[in-house]
Design a protein that fits this description.
The complex is a heterodimer of chains A (about 550) and B (about 100).
Chain A (H helix, E strand, L loop, with lengths): L8 H34 L22 E3 L5 E2 L5 H9 L3 E4 L5 E3 L4 E3 L2 H16 L21 H8 L19 H11 L2 H8 L14 H12 L10 H10 L10 H14 L12 H6 L1 E9 L5 E8 L2 E3 L3 E2 L2 E2 L6 H8 L3 E3 L16 E9 L3 E6 L2 E2 L9 E2 L9 E3 L5 H10 L20 E11 L6 E8 L2 E6 L2 E5 L1 H5 L3 E8 L11 H23 L2 H24 L1
Parallel strand pairs in A: 8-13
Antiparallel strand pairs in A: 1-2, 1-3, 3-4, 4-5, 6-7, 6-12, 9-10, 11-12, 13-21, 14-15, 16-17, 17-18, 17-21, 18-19, 19-20
Chain B lengths: L2 H18 L1 H15 L2 H15 L5 H14 L3 H19 L1
The chains are: A alpha+beta (about 550), B mainly alpha (about 100).
Protein name (chain A): Ubiquitin carboxyl-terminal hydrolase
Catalytic activity (chain A): Thiol-dependent hydrolysis of ester, thioester, amide, peptide and isopeptide bonds formed by the C-terminal Gly of ubiquitin (a 76-residue protein attached to proteins as an intracellular targeting signal)
Keywords (chain A): Hydrolase, Metal-binding, Protease, Thiol protease, Ubl conjugation pathway, Zinc, Zinc-finger
């Protein structure tokens, strides 16, 4: 690591001297760019967008470099921004889009942790002011940094800090590579990691006998321990055997294992319910799919909304052969959201109540989850006979980042209206809210090599900007290129900027508080009565209540 | 047309495209296509791996080093589509 998190000694000196001027300018410039982009995207009916021009050659710029010392903006291509720094003896200018800072003394772009943080906050702050919820028109809940209060600071004093990244191979316990690949992709899921590392489910305090949450907690403890030898997830496997149908020593499907594990974590989470659950699994993976069925005769559309934890995508086959050019993640999603003709007898319109006419069905994503999981249907089952299943080995191209806007319910129909086909088709431009709300970054991939009956699962996972390859007990440093060119079976994307809901006390805590108050009231009443008998009774009741509370705590 | 006038025309068109938002729209289409084709990730990967061993590390050298590959590997279909978009916009402004 670099000392004090900076590659540039000059910015440190400058920040010490007249930091506030530079920082204010920097923030203004970044917010200006966010607002400019938003103005471009929302003004369908043309409003003129301000275009700064290069102070040297007069060229209009959509992405200028702005001097942090004066009003100058300049271009990169003709080096005018850098010339200005030299001529005016100014030190720093910034790229308005990325916030990258150029130092004239270093004669290069620099990294400075403090400025990086300011840039992230300025951009996020400006974007939050641009985001209104579509229904309530309320502004998005602003991100608040965690600052420990006295109690938390005191508690943290006794803690030993550990690095927030850790990698450990997992031993193959006899054809359990499917489980290892799934576990690694759960371990590298930033939301699950933060949940379990912040001790939200402590296995020492849990009273359930078989609990997948406890197994996850144990797993994270092991992964983040100082021991870096491969770990045997025996208890996890045993738990999987007991709670799902994936038992025995045979190779199982990683996707089946993934879904079974998610369901198990969900059902052993605190406060999990069957409808609109806000357990860690539903908060992380839960989204909504909208399906619109349109009667082609009377135009009546019936809309159904279904909760999803992941999306399974078909691969394109052409006369038995696979068309590789059409197998990109974006192409699969386009096909997924394309209107599909329903068979004649599949649908009865409620409006014109006739059976025998045409209808079309269209899927779209109504609510994007914080983590998107995709599965490519590589295992094609021709008949119900399992032995005839074959594997589609075609490569699928997936991107390191994807914008999900074109596949959302809000935009999918707009797309047809606006562009249809032709140049620029399928790339939405006018959005509800800033583009960033639709941006997702790849953090994990599960691969399947070999044939269906004797295959092997491996996976790739990312921490910050580095990729690692996991093959059971072997963990190796890898690259983005290697990950993207591997044969992908499942892939996982995390939303770049999460949006927050205002904090709400969970219902089970409110219930407990209510009971607590009732108890107190009862006590008071008993004391007022003044009879020893009453007192004893309420005491008994207290004990019973406490037991119920404990039992409740353990189950929720 | 003399080259000076051409420069003035180019500057004028560029300003109009930026002010009308078409510049950003074309850019968005270009980026979406390059990203889907794998170009963005390929260039990023190559540059990053090169940066690991470059001594001393310099943005300008890295940028100049990747530029020829970056320009030569843009898929033909993407070039055609973006050219068509640019033409559409120009016709709107020049007619």
């Amino acid at each position: 690591m670099l000392e004090q998190g900076s590659t540039c000694p000059h910015i440190k000196a400058e920040l010490g001297e007249n930091g506030t001027t530079i920082i204010t300018k920097y923030k203004t410039v970044l917010a200006w760019n966010v607002n400019r982009l938003q103005a471009v995207r929302t003004s369908a009916k043309r409003r003129r967008i301000a275009a700064p021009s290069c102070g040297a050659c007069g060229l209009a710029l959509s992405r200028p470099l702005a001097c942090l010392h004066c009003e100058f903006t300049g271009c990169w291509d003709n080096q005018h921004a850098l010339e200005h720094l030299r001529d005016a003896e100014h030190s720093f200018c910034a790229d308005v889009k990325t916030g990258a800072i150029f130092c004239s003394q270093c004669n290069d772009f620099i990294y400075d942790a403090e400025m990086e943080e300011i840039s992230l906050e300025a951009i996020l702050g400006a974007e939050e002011k641009q985001t209104r919820f579509q229904v309530s028109q309320k502004l998005r809940e602003p991100f608040k940094r965690w600052t420990p209060d006295e109690k938390e600071a005191a508690a943290a004093e006794n803690f030993v800090s550990r690095p927030c990244q850790s990698r450990r191979g997992l031993v193959n316990l006899g054809q359990t590579c499917f489980l290892n690949a799934v576990l690694q992709s759960l371990i590298h899921n930033p939301l699950l990691r933060n949940y379990f590392l912040s001790d939200k489910h402590n296995w020492r305090q849990c009273k359930l006998e078989t609990c997948t949450c406890c197994e996850m907690d144990r797993l994270f403890t092991e992964i983040y321990s100082e021991d870096d030898t491969p770990y045997c997830p025996t208890t996890f496997l045993y738990n999987l055997w007991r709670t799902s149908e994936l038992s025995g020593y045979a190779q199982h499907d990683a996707h089946e294992c993934f879904i079974a594990t998610l369901n198990q974590i969900h059902s052993t989470s605190r406060g999990s319910t069957n409808v609109s659950c806000n357990c860690i699994i539903h908060n992380t993976f839960g989204g909504q799919l909208q399906s619109d069925v349109r009667c082609e005769r009377c135009g009546n559309t019936t809309t159904a909304i279904d909760p999803i934890l992941d999306i399974s995508l078909e691969l394109k086959t052409k006369g038995g052969d696979l068309a590789s050019a059409e197998n990109t993640l974006a192409a699969c999603l386009r096909r997924f959201t394309l209107p599909e003709k329903l068979g004649v007898k599949e649908y009865t319109c409620t409006k014109c109540t006739k059976i025998a006419h045409e209808a079309s069905k269209r899927m779209s994503i109504r609510q994007l989850p914080p983590v998107l999981s995709f599965q490519f249907k590589r295992f094609e089952q021709k008949t119900n006979d399992k032995t005839s299943t074959r594997k589609l080995d075609t490569p699928v191209r997936i991107p390191a980042s994807i914008n999900m806007a074109p596949y959302t319910s809000a935009l999918v129909r707009e797309m047809d209206k606006e562009t249809g086909s032709g140049a620029g088709a399928g790339v939405p431009f006018v959005y509800p809210g800033p583009e960033i709300l639709y941006e997702y970054d790849l953090f994990g991939v599960i691969n399947h090599e070999g044939q269906i009956d004797n295959g092997h699962y491996t996976n790739f996972a990312r921490f910050e900007d580095e990729w690692y390859r996991f093959d059971d007990d072997k963990v190796t440093h890898s690259s983005l290129g290697a990950c993207l060119s591997s044969n992908v079976y499942m892939c996982f994307y995390a939303k770049r900027h999460l949006d927050y809901k205002p904090y709400m006390t969970p219902t089970y805590i409110r219930e407990m508080e209510k009971k607590e108050k009732e108890k107190e009231r009862e006590k008071e009443r008993a004391e007022k009565d003044g009879t020893g008998k009453g007192k004893e009774k309420s005491k008994d009741k207290d004990v019973v209540m406490r037991e119920i509370d404990d039992a409740l705590l353990a189950t929720v | 047309m003399p080259s000076q006038d051409l420069d003035v025309l180019h500057q004028d068109i560029r300003r109009r495209l930026i002010e009308s938002g078409e510049w950003d729209h074309i850019r968005a289409v270009l980026y979406a296509r390059l990203n889907e084709s794998g170009w963005v990730d390929e260039i990023k990967d190559q540059t990053k791996e090169k940066a690991r061993t470059m001594e001393p590390l310099s943005f300008e050298r890295l940028f100049e080093g990747i530029k020829p590959t970056a320009q030569n590997t843009i898929p033909l279909s993407v070039k055609r589509e973006v050219n068509a978009l640019i033409r559409q916009s120009l016709q709107k402004h020049l007619s």
